[in-house]
Design brief:
The structure holds two protein chains of two kinds. Chain A is an all-beta fold. Chain A has no helices and nine strands. In chain A, strand 3 and strand 4 form a beta hairpin. By secondary structure, chain B is an all-beta fold. The chains are: A mainly beta, B mainly beta.
Chain lengths: ~110, ~120
């Protein structure tokens, strides 16, 4: 089955840039989606199709995807960005079909 | 307002059964693919099952295959998850989710979740 690998944690100071990676075999050939989840809440889609932002998501959130790594970039990080972030793909070659990464806890110092 | 509301969670003994429901409103439910996603306490998101808009195509995660059954009633705008032979490791918050605006597999609609606890 297809595996997505994320770092367990990323820390960044307010105002700086956070980069959260998502590794997978030839992930650049797939569409990657990113979710933000705060404690006790349902996930929220923050980037879809590698680099597009849903309506209402700040421009500070951006994404890229190439080779074996997709990246979620959060610019000018704010305290309110502290959350868990998950990458996700649809893998038609696998029985799992929908695959989530293990998640990354973003801590704002 | 586009909304999904889950219900049916609760405490069940190992080996028992539970049926979850997800009520959709604010959109044409019959046109959209649906999924169940779960999250064990303190753990990450795990996809559980998928059903096409007509119900003709269904997929399951290996961890629930043969024990869980996904279904939908488009006339009632409802999605279901029948869970049998429940195990302690099925303990989780269960979400229904759908790709409404940005593609079938980019889940921009989520319910609030319903907690399932499997314990004796």
């Amino acid at each position: 089955s297809y595996v997505l690998t994320q770092p367990p944690s990323v820390s960044v100071a307010p105002g700086q840039t956070a980069r959260i990676t998502c590794g997978g075999n030839n992930i650049g050939s797939k569409s990657v989606h990113w979710y933000q989840q705060k404690p006790g809440q349902a996930p929220v889609l923050v980037v879809y199709d590698d680099s597009d932002r849903p309506s209402g998501i700040p421009e500070r959130f951006s994404g890229s995807n190439s080779g074996n790594t997709a990246t979620l970039t959060i610019s000018r990080v704010e305290a309110g960005d502290e959350a868990d972030y998950y990458c996700q793909v649809w893998d038609s070659s696998s029985d799992h079909h929908v695959v989530f990464g293990g998640g990354t806890k973003l801590t704002v110092l | 307002e586009v909304q999904l509301v889950e219900s049916g969670g609760g405490l069940v003994q190992p080996g028992g059964s539970l049926r979850l429901s997800c009520a959709a409103s604010g959109f044409t439910f019959s046109s959209y693919e649906m999924n169940w996603v779960r999250q064990a306490p303190g753990k990450g998101l795990e996809w559980v099952s998928y059903i096409s808009s007509s119900g003709s195509t269904i997929y399951y995660a290996d961890s629930v295959k043969g024990r869980f059954t996904i279904s939908r009633d488009n006339a009632k705008n409802s999605l279901y998850l029948q869970m049998n032979s429940l195990r302690a490791e099925d303990t989780a918050v269960y979400y229904c989710a759908s790709g409404y605006s940005y593609g079938d597999d980019a889940f921009d609609i989520w319910g609030q979740g319903t907690m399932v606890t499997v314990s004796s």
